[in-house]
Amino acid sequence: MPYEVRLITEQDIEEVLVLWGLNAGEHVPLLSYDRWGPGVAVPARPEVTEVEAFTRDPLDGTRDLLRAALTDELSFCLVADTGHELEGFLTGELHTQSVNDFRIGSVRELYVRQESRRRGIGSALVAGAIAEFRRRRARMFRAEVNPDWKDGMAFWRARSAWLQDAVVFNHYE
Fold first, then answer.
1. Which residues contact 101 (CB under 8 A, 6 or more apart)?
2. What is d(CA 131, CA 47) in angstroms, rounded to the nearest whole number?
3. 107, β-bridge pairs
4. C-alpha torsion angle, residues 12, 14, 15, 16 (rounded to 10)
5. Alpha-carbon gap, residue 56 to 75, rounded angstroms
6. What is the pTM of this model?
7. In angstroms, what CA-CA distances link 18 with 14, 33, 112?
8. Which string of DSSP letters, residue by residue, matches 6-55?
């Protein structure tokens, strides 16, 4: 199955939203929407008793994020396109480290359709992201993965140039 890795276009947004939903459904157990209002998806974590509700529908927020990636210098979205459907996507974001003023490129979301995995699509998306990060003058690249996501952990550990050198802790209010 030949595919092209390229930057997202306006015409791709709805299809990427479908893939994003598949990604969330595959990896993120969600608490009841009713707890915080309609359309509010909150990751289920036993240690988090309450999370402040946002009344905005996450679908609208994700759509806006993808639209911003069309023109924003600090974010982008890549897609793996076969010509008739998208097989996967990757979102990237750049941050400036103030201490030594260099840019860090962060892979935010990476998803490949389940039936298309182990065909090099994820690796091609990551290679495309590195090229895009470099084009935007990033000096370091980062990907955060939930340690419970076995496939994701295995994918990133198999990238010989990527080192697992941090543990991230989050505080929810």
1. none
2. 38
3. 92, 143
4. 80
5. 21
6. 0.79
7. 7, 19, 12
8. EE--GGGHHHHHHHHHHHHHHH--B--GGGT-TT---B--TT--------
Can you give the pLDDT of all 173 residues of the chain as single tens digits? 789 999 999 999 999 998 988 876 665 544 444 444 444 455 555 555 555 544 556 778 888 889 999 999 999 999 999 999 999 999 999 998 777 778 899 999 999 999 999 999 999 999 999 999 999 999 889 998 888 888 888 999 999 888 888 777 776 66
CA–CA separation, 153 and 162 (whole Å): 11
For residue 11, what are its two tokens?
């015409």
**Of 94, 97, 89, 98, the residue nearest 66 (C-alpha):** 89
Amino acid at 170: N
The count of residues in the chain is: 173
Q: Distance from CA of residue 118 to its chain's centroid? A: 18
